Amino acid sequence: MKANRPRHPRALAALALAALLPAACAQQDAGTQRLEILTDEWQLAGFENSLDLSGIAAANKTQVLVGSDEMFHVQPGVIEASKHRIESKRPIALPVKSAGKKQEVDIEGVAYSSADHAYYVVGSHGLGKKKGDFQADRHSIYQVPVDPATGQVKKDGIRRTSLLPWLEKTPQVKPHLKQPLQQNGLNIEGLTWSGGKLWFGLRAPNQDGRGLVLELAPDQLFGGGKPGPMRVHEITIAKGRGIREIAAVQDGFILLTGNASAEASKKIPITAAPGPDTRFELLYWDGRDTKATNLGRLPENGGKGEALLVLDDAAGHVDLLVIFDGLPGGEPLGVRIHR
């Protein structure tokens, strides 16, 4: 009898996931979605602050832009699909207001607009997680222009503004502004572009089992218009859960969810978090309804689900990379969602 060979780690993850998925997800029926862990091992190579990668988007099949929540730079990258590798290029500094040793935008989302030929890069618009302090650069959103012919970032012409004036005029979120993340304070963690609009996924607040996505046109932000209320989408998710990333696909959006509240700190010892931030799930949302379909739970790997990159958006499936905070190079996990 031959000795049993050790299983590939991705295969073990797939088996673990299968045990977690509800029975209803086991069959691929008409109108259902099913999550599958892929065995291709992707690598994000050469990126600075690789333990803190927090946002990624692609301008085309080969050019991406990556953000880290511990930097005030963005990092272009090149996709080598045949090698399952994304290679970093030289970082590009974003304009910031603060001075001194600690300059940080707290980048939480990156999106690409094919209409504007530009990336959008958003800070959390929340207080510092450990001290609960206000930092102006966290309340930033940037427009980063791209050469439409090549998809490469143009270093000149980067523009900065803030969502704060719009958030202050949006009644559903205004009470949560400048409040600690441990206590349901507003915190943007996801960003995507679809149908000419930017869509912001909020980690917090969770309002009694309702997660929030905010919608706003880029030209309202960067066209010199007068700030007004943002459009708010309420999505039914579990109480205490928040949207950690949002990615547009042809028939709606994929949401990545985790704890809405941050863990306690010395300065903020009380938290609304229901437990350790180790459970991360993917949901499908059509962009209109208040309901989202749970696609399944991601296998635990010691990191925190942080960013999504759409690799293929086909008629029968969507292929994604899930990037994890706290793991070297984001430890990308390939996922297929069957339509």
From TrEMBL:
Domain DUF3616: from-to ranges: 52-136, 159-325
Keyword terms: Signal
Protein name: DUF3616 domain-containing protein
Coiled coil stretches, renumbered: none
Keyword match Signal: yes
Keyword Lipid metabolism: no
Residues making up the signal peptide according to the UniProt record: 1-26
Organism (species): Luteolibacter arcticus
